[in-house]
Write a structure and sequence with these properties.
Chain lengths: ~375, ~625
């Protein structure tokens, strides 16, 4: 290639990379976003990036943080643990961000913690539910609930609202999430006086669940607990209904996908699951967000987009209160977060640096979801 | 510079260099991001060096290499979480985390211990995986290693689920200080040691057995190379390097996540090896470094463009593979450039000549007595050779003739251990050879050439002969890797011996040519030179005159006579060409349909009616 050709490409690239000219006179506050934009968990990172971008745009339209605009710098870790450290170092040292939002997959968040701790840069994860995450360092915060909280909510709702006494648990044996949730449900359900009459398991790749369902129904349960993911869940519920089971089924946020209703249809009536938010929530803030998101990206925001948005809100709130934009100050402000009105509830950060908020319980009727109630353990 | 001084300098460079680099990086405030990139390059260079040995040099296509990273990660993770934790339980955490020199050395010591644990586990694992799967070749080996990789992944997954109710293992916070050990100093020491070990191995006579196996495993066996042993050796070294990289990665992320070490990671590791030139250590290592760096540069793109980063990367790979299918460096090494320069400078100067004693040793008469008794082989219902008897006296030249399909080459294959006879016995100097492996039979003193030439086509003429001297080496692989004085001495002797043999067969002028590029006659002679280099008692030549013109045949006759006179060995000659057989053999055995139909001197055979019938297809009387 001749030099004559290279020059315009370089200048075009430089223009592309250079920050857009801002309406603000003040220096922007740079906030990093560590995300899986590509790779096996690409949908997670793309959703959180949209939510965070929307939060930043809204904040800037309203005057930024203490008069300074917010600038989000996103870096892709390709959904790989081994890429995370360099991503973190780039955000911290090259882009000079004051705090970082991310990741979703717990193993990626945990891989990011050493760099955050070493450089005293707060890390706010929108969606890592593994309880270990926030125990790994005092600069790590979380705006979603842990699987412990979620399992407790499922058990509480089942015992107190559904009056369930005899639960049958069906677990995805290749998923740590499912195994954990089943374990916590059992523990909490028994504390509330319920009884787990049988536990059966399946593999994600199974396509026929007759054996498991028959085995579970043989123990005469009045509740089916399904802790896996939506594709399997839809088929398991269908199988159970065909076998004559009419009682309630319940599960966690693994159920959250439009595909669930396509698979299960009306068989899903009398089913419930815990989630981070419900797009049917009449709350005007949520309706406003859903509308804006839809017009901008053309789809209903999923839980990850909402959690990304909420993580950004919590962080902006802390940066505004911190006084100065240094890691330790922002960290201290994050630790004292109280009642931030976010989409997934009113968020307060507790001593373990986890979010305290309501859990959304979604019900299904006529093959459609509705907001059942906001649950507090 | 003396050899010793050079070795010491290399050792200092390999260990001191990275430590010095780390010191400078800290002293001059190189950003942690830049340091992180340098670590990443070292990690991928280490992986490329190990894999280049397995795929590029030994020619074994392994798709399970990431599995060995997980072995290193898992066992070192366990070691650190249990033993290092126990050892540091009573120490002050602030000291362990601190930046004092003593803390750095203590942490470095722990890293060495935990890395040794990871590498030891990888040795065991690579033997367990290698022994059964290295029997397979090509696609089958690739699938088998892929399978082992998946088994490893699932084993770890099940273990973590049972043990921790999680799909990954996170090291306890108390050993977080170990993250500081993963830096330029440690990662580049590992990378440089890895490169050095691989380079030293492949540029030694013992290590050249590996490309020989890659080129032609049967021919490698015929010159006394125990291919199972060498393949396993390459597999172990490559796997240990992968495990060392796994150890570094586990301590950098403080996580052991089996999902990181699946099939896609193995492919990611193979890319730079193929791209840089799969028979070139230099190419593989440079490509690994370069591409790690380029991918990191692309990280600077804005978020909506980052999604195309991997597409750009993949596009570059496709373009390179189309423009240069043999890889960026082909089979060239950095050393080839130095040698080229050195050769131009030293042109005209005399090279080392072989000491007289050694020269005598090569042609020291050591002929043997070869006997076949009732040798029979059946392939299913077909009796290929039936009750074959043969007795070769020391220094005899015996011709084995017969029409196509008579079973001549099958007899050769039974003698040299390629086939195991159904019944009967083959004895060299009254010791049975039946059941021995090909390479063992060669080491016992039987060398052969092949009907359809089987040279190590992509290696130099000199290397073809040097490799055949392999079985007589006194210094082995450890000496080659450590570059001991004895190694250098023997290497020089090997070189001179090979040149001497090439001289005898009039091939020294093409010593540096690629064997496959020689004219046909030269290839035949090179194959004989290679067979002679194994210092045989009995030399078996399988149709050496096939495809030669009359002038070449005359040269061949002279050559056989010359070899016989010089080396005083026993020669068994399969040949179609009567001119060659009659001209050089003392006695002739005629084989037809697996049966011996005549034995005698050339004059007797010429008149034997059964032979004439077998060759002309009619009774002798009618033919006349």
């Amino acid at each position: 290639m001749r030099l004559g050709l290279i020059a315009p490409i370089v200048s075009a690239l430089a223009a592309f990379i250079a920050p857009p000219s801002s309406v603000f006179a003040a220096d922007p506050i740079k906030i990093g976003h560590l995300a899986s934009l590509t790779g096996s968990e690409a949908t997670f990172g793309q959703s959180t990036d949209r939510g965070i971008t929307m939060a930043a745009e809204e904040r800037n339209a309203a005057g930024g943080i203490n008069g300074r605009p917010v600038e989000i710098v996103t870096v892709d870790d390709q959904s790989k643990n081994q890429e995370v450290n360099n991503c973190m170092m780039k955000l911290i040292q090259q882009d000079k961000v004051v705090a970082i939002l991310g990741e979703i997959a717990s193993s990626n968040t945990i891989a990011a913690i050493p760099a955050a701790q070493r450089n005293k840069i707060p890390l706010v994860t929108p969606g890592s539910t593994n309880p270990e995450v926030t125990k790994k360092g005092d600069y790590v915060f979380r705006v979603c609930y842990t699987d412990i909280v979620q399992g407790g909510a499922i058990a509480g709702f089942a015992a107190k609202r559904l009056d369930a006494k005899r639960a049958a648990i069906i677990t995805d044996q290749a998923s740590a999430y499912s195994i954990n949730l089943s374990r916590i449900f059992k523990q909490e359900f028994e504390k509330l006086g319920g009884k787990v009459v049988i536990e059966v398991s399946y593999k994600k790749t199974d396509s026929d669940y007759n054996a498991q369902v028959r085995q579970a129904l043989g123990a005469k349960p009045d509740l089916l607990v399904l802790t896996g993911y939506y594709t399997n869940i839809g088929n398991i519920v269908l199988t159970a209904r065909r076998a004559g089971y009419t009682g309630p089924c319940i599960g966690g946020d693994g159920w959250d996908s439009d595909a669930l209703y396509q698979i299960g249809g009306k068989a899903l009536d009398n089913c419930y699951f815990t989630n981070h938010y419900s797009p049917d929530d009449p709350n005007p803030r949520i309706q406003d967000f859903v509308k804006k998101y839809q017009s901008k990206y053309g789809s209903v925001p999923d839980a990850m987009a909402v959690l990304g948005y909420d993580a950004a809100l919590v962080l902006f709130d802390a940066v505004a209160r911190a006084g100065e934009t240094t890691g330790p100050k922002i960290r201290d402000a994050l630790a004292t977060t109280k009642n931030v009105q976010a989409l997934s509830g009113s968020i307060t950060i507790d001593k373990e640096r986890n979010a305290q908020k309501e859990i959304v319980i979604v019900g299904i009727k006529d093959g459609k979801r509705y907001l059942k109630e906001l649950w507090k353990n | 510079m003396s050899r010793l001084a050079r070795n010491i300098l290399v050792l200092f460079g390999v260990i001191g260099g990275p430590i010095l680099a780390q010191y400078c990086a800290n002293r001059f405030g190189l950003s942690q991001y830049a340091q992180g990139i340098l670590y990443k390059i070292a990690l991928n260079v280490t992986l490329a060096a190990g894999l280049s040995l397995i795929i590029g040099f030994a020619g074994q296509f392994s798709l399970g290499q990431a599995g060995f990273m997980s072995v290193g990660a898992f066992f070192s993770g366990l070691f650190t979480s249990k033993l290092v934790l126990a050892m540091t339980a009573s120490m002050n955490p602030a000291f362990l985390e601190g930046d004092t020199t003593s803390a750095a050395f203590l942490r470095g010591g722990f890293l060495i211990l935990t890395m040794l644990a990871g590498m030891a586990a990888a040795v065991v694992a690579s033997i367990l995986v290698g022994l059964p799967s290295l029997r397979l070749r090509g696609d089958y080996l690739a699938i088998a290693t892929l399978g082992f990789g998946e088994i490893g992944y699932n084993l770890l997954l099940v273990y973590f689920q049972k043990q921790y109710s999680d799909t990954a293992y996170y090291m306890p916070n108390e050993v977080n200080f170990m993250e500081k050990t993963v830096n330029i100093a440690s990662s580049w020491t590992v990378a440089l040691v890895g490169i050095l070990v691989v380079r030293n191995l492949i540029s030694s006579t013992a290590g050249r057995a590996l490309p020989a196996i890659r080129e032609d495993e049967i021919a490698a066996g015929a010159v006394g190379i125990n291919s199972t042993r060498y393949k396993l050796l390459a597999f172990i070294i490559g796997s240990v390097l992968a495990s060392a990289a796994g150890v570094l990665e586990a301590h950098q992320t403080l996580t052991v996540n089996p999902a990181n070490y699946r099939f896609d990671r193995s492919i990611e590791m193979i890319v730079p090896v193929v791209l840089g030139g799969s028979g070139s250590l230099t190419g593989s290592v440079l490509a690994a470094g370069l591409f790690t760096f380029l991918l990191e540069l692309l990280r600077g793109l804005p978020s909506d463009a980052q999604q195309y980063r991997t597409i750009v990367y993949a596009g570059v790979l496709v373009v390179i593979m189309i423009l240069r299918p043999q890889g960026l460096m082909g089979r060239y090494e950095l050393g080839d450039l130095f040698r080229y320069i050195a050769r131009r400078r030293s042109a005209g100067r005399p090279t080392m000549t072989l000491p007289a004693l050694a020269a005598q040793q090569i042609i020291a008469p050591q002929s043997g007595k070869l006997e076949c008794r009732d040798l029979t082989i059946r392939f299913g219902g077909l009796i290929a050779v039936n009750g074959f008897n043969l007795s070769l006296a020391p220094r005899e030249i015996l011709g084995l003739i017969g029409p196509n399909g008579a079973g001549k080459t099958t007899c050769f294959n039974m003698i040299t251990g390629v086939y195991r006879p159904t019944s009967g016995d083959v004895c060299l100097n009254d010791q049975s050879l039946v059941g021995s492996k090909t390479f063992r039979i060669n080491q016992r003193g039987i060398a052969r050439t092949f009907q359809n030439i089987r040279l190590f086509a992509n290696l130099s003429v000199l290397d073809n002969v040097r490799i055949a001297l392999h079985a007589h080496l006194k210094t082995g692989v450890p000496a080659a890797i450590l570059r001991t004085a004895a190694f250098y001495k023997e290497e020089a002797l090997t070189h001179a011996t090979a040149m001497h043999l090439l001289d005898l067969l009039d091939l020294s002028r093409v010593a540096d040519e690629r064997a496959g590029s020689l004219p046909y006659g030269d290839q035949r002679r090179l194959e004989i030179a290679r067979a002679l280099a194994t210092r045989p008692r009995v030399l078996c030549l399988d149709e050496p005159a096939a495809g030669m013109n009359p002038a070449e045949k005359r040269d061949l006759l002279n050559l056989i006579a010359k070899i016989h006179q010089l080396f005083q060995l026993t020669i068994l000659l399969i040949e179609h060409d009567m001119q060659v057989v009659m001209g050089v053999c003392h006695r002739i055995v005629v084989l037809d349909h697996g049966e011996t139909i005549a034995i005698g001197t050339p004059a007797e055979i010429r008149k034997n009616p059964a032979v004439i019938e077998a060759y002309l297809g009619e009774p002798a009387g009618h033919a006349a």
